Amino acid sequence: MSKHDNKQPLPPKRSGLPVLGSAVSFGRDPYAFYEDVASHGDVVRFSMGSYDMVGVLHPDAIEDVLVENFDCFRKPDAAGGVDVLADGLLLADGEQWQSQRTRLQPMFYRERIETYAETMATYAAATADEWVAADGTIDLTEATSTYTLQVLGKTLFGVDTDEHRRAIRAGAEAILERSSQNPVSVDLPSWLPTPSNRRYRRGIDQLEGVVDDLIEQADEDGDDKDILSLLVTASAQEEDGPTESEIRSQLMTFLFAGHETSATALTWALYELGRKPSVADRLHSEVDDVLDGTTATLTDLPDLTYTEQVLRETLRRYPPAAAIFREADEDVTIGGFRVPEDTFVVLPQFHVHTDGRWWDNPDQFDPSRWDDISEPPGDRPEYSYFPFGGGPRHCIGMRFARMELKLALATIARRCRITHDHDTVPIEVGSTVHPGNAVRATVQRRD
Ligand code: HEM
Asked: Which of 395, 403, 409 to mutate to test the pocket of ligand 1 (most atoms within 8 A of CB)?
């Protein structure tokens, strides 16, 4: 792809309803909607409310957007209407983003992440034991998010999040609801007292309360022992350190991005174990073989190959981030088509990960497709699989999430068996790919 060539044609257009554009079809069935978009080509124009969008469906063109021509795009200004995250790493842009990323990156180096392994596994063991002790069924979405929040709080914030759990969940749900609304409803100003705006404000107020408490507890002459003390110390000691509003936005970003996605992935993995006894049996036999005791450790990780396969397949079939959004900062060429400045560009993981060109029986949950452990397996194009995005803005928490999920899944599978009566659970696509209803499961102790 060249950066920009005036002679290139515009991408083919999928027509939608006047005013609403494609919002109605997307809302009805996001998978069918993108199938239809794909029938027009690999780079396709459509509109959603007042937004002109371009869906990019070919892995090579996706790689161009995320990696090769990274600097021709910015994060969308609308930010899904979630203003409180605007100054955090997920939504910041330009120099602000660059300096935040440089400051925070060392917190995510491999050696650092590895020091969290024991905490991650210890919480997983306690979680599994609690589930076993619970009489009756547990709600997997709720149970996994308790786990990922505990880990996040302890490792990256140095605090016990138990007392704040409800408030953080309320904030996360408000952010999810707001960012999942299609752009038509996001166009309504957030000060209008609509029921949705009131719900959003209530959730965000709770999250802001937690952030205030955390900042109050933080150690200003600390060091970089966790994100909280790193930011508060930099703010107190450096002239160009983060402002208070930036710290607040950053904490909210990490409290949200750092637990919701991993919890959703773990929920789907456990749901599939309860649905597919053959997958559960192979996983149980691996963990029985590899683990010395009943809790996974850092040194077990390389030998947990099937556990890794189950997780890779989970992130393929149910990519938690659903889709990546950019806005063209200038006129640019994508896949041979001219995309004008300010166009909204969508890279839908949930569609690409189930595109029959790259994946046989794409709707099937089948960890054995990863028996060839390369990522993605076989000779598929690299960006036929991109659960953590790519290029300079790839997920900063990728290593953290992968290790946390692997230790948790292995430890849980070693200690208990998950069963449930759900035939299928609807897959809902919003700002995450999440279960459309509660997944209730029974947990029995193994051995
Ligand atoms: C399975 C779990 C996770 C998935 C699938 C996931 C996915 C993603 C994706 C796709 C992006 C790129 C978004 C874009 O390019 O617009 C991203 C960015 C980000 N993620 Fe994650 N994530 C996960 C876990 C985490 C965790 C555990 C943390 C924090 C501890 C985290 C923090 C972030 C942040 C701060 C960004 C913005 C990075 C930047 O723009 O520089 N994520 N994530």
From this structure: 395
Q: Which atom of ligand 1 is nearest to the CA of 325?
A: 16
Q: Ligand 1, closest atom to CA 394? A: 12
Output the six-digit token pair for 443. Answer: 């947990």
In the chain, where are the structural domains located?
A: 23-445
Q: What is the distance between the alpha carbons of residues 121 and 337, in angstroms, rounded to a whole number?
A: 48
Indicate which atom in ligand 1 lies nearest the CA of residue 386.
10
Determine which of 172-176, 204-208, 231-235 has the lowest per-residue pLDDT on average. 172-176
Question: How far are the Cα atoms of 76, 333, 339 from residue 73, in angstroms, in the given order?
Answer: 9, 12, 11
Instruction: Read off the pTM.
Output: 0.93
pLDDT over 50 at 186, yes or no = no
Helix, strand, coil % in the chain, rounded to nearest 5: 55, 10, 35
Mean pLDDT of 411-427: 94
Write down the mean pLDDT value for the chain: 88
Question: What is the per-residue pLDDT for 164?
Answer: 81
Residue 56: strand pairing partners:
43
Please give the pLDDT value at position 193.
Answer: 57
Output the ligand 1 site: residues, CB below 6 A: 89-90, 101, 156, 253-254, 257-258, 261-262, 265, 320-321, 324, 387-389, 393, 395-397, 400-401
Q: Tokens 């390369």, residue?
A: 374
* Domain 23-445 architecture: Orthogonal Bundle (1.10)
